[in-house]
Amino acid sequence: MMTQKKIPVRLPVGAVMVLGFFLTILLGFLLLLMPVSQKEPVSIVDLFFVATSAVCVTGLTPVDISQVFSVFGQTVIMFLFQVGGLGFAVIVVFVLYAVSSTNFSVKNLVRESLGFSPSAKIGRILKYTLLSTLTIEFIGALLLFLSFRKIFPLGKAIYNSVFHSISAYNNAGFDLFSTSLVSFNQNPLVLITVAVLIILGGIGYIVYYDLLMYRKKKHLSLHSKIVFLMTGLLLVTGTVILKLTENESWLISFFHSVSCRTAGFFASDLTLLSSPGILIMIFLMFIGASPGSTGGGLKTTTFYSILFSTTKIFRGGNTTVFNRTISKDSITKAFGLFSLALAIIICAFFFLTVTENASFEALLFETVSAYATVGLTVGVTPNLTLWGKIIIICVMFIGRVGAISIITSISYNHTEIKYPDERVCIG
Description:
It comes from Candidatus Gallitreponema excrementavium. With 427 residues, the protein is mainly α.
């Protein structure tokens, strides 16, 4: 009697990632739905909104989590944005390699999409990422505790320190103070600690691994050099412009320049922002953090590639920086991601103008904040309609997993037919 050999069903890698994030959100939603998680009744939509925001490390929330959720519920939220942040960098690598362990081309694609060299060892990456994350979060919690212990009872000071350190490093932006860090806007230790945690989380594990391998290679990769250059440039530019446009101190201007690039903490009332201040924040939010990090947005290296390759398109020649040429494939992907991000933001913004009663700039701010998983709001989120909440939920989810699912979904082997080239009039 012959037995049929079962052929394993292999989902596309992108589908695995989308499903994984959705199931994590669903688990968080079910945990928050439990009576032990709530101090006050919360609607089903709001619970799903908070769960999505936490897993996507966004920070937008229609309710005050410090008031409506119990300590257990707040801990669930903390667990979700730790998984959403750490999981993005670590579990993504693990899952992608697990589902495609026999496909050499997919392995190379995974390495390329996450920025690792062909010689990078996954075991070392996972170990170093986990250790560096826990170490940085622990040090951040200790520094925050130095301030919080003077304000809160010991137990609450410890809990708040751990919660906000994890939230900051994962660029989540969730807080337990109702008004974010406004009450600490005169506390340099808190603001600088949170800002440094945000920066470290937004630089990306690819850069960390590159620094780890520096002793052997004696040089940094082009990726790391661009990340450091763009991070410094955006921080300085954002700080100076916010200082000039808003009546705030240099410290708060610096903090907002850091936070609006995917973290979502704020140290002053954002509803009082001037129009130029809102525009520069939208610009910084759209660019976001760096690849392989806990942050979102278009990404620093993508923006850099687009910016410099655009000048080369009209002048001719290769896109060269730091004595290296950015590959045409990378530039093509950068323009593709830019077009996709712009299309999603425009569509979501249009639908919000239909469903919500708010100004154009406020709705655009909210849309970009959701897509780039920033979490800043100028007062729109708490007043969203049911359809508005559904739109923002979708935008947060797409902003977090969209790029990964697109990159990994092209791993199918297919035959491409080559047709003759023909010029098209442009402009």
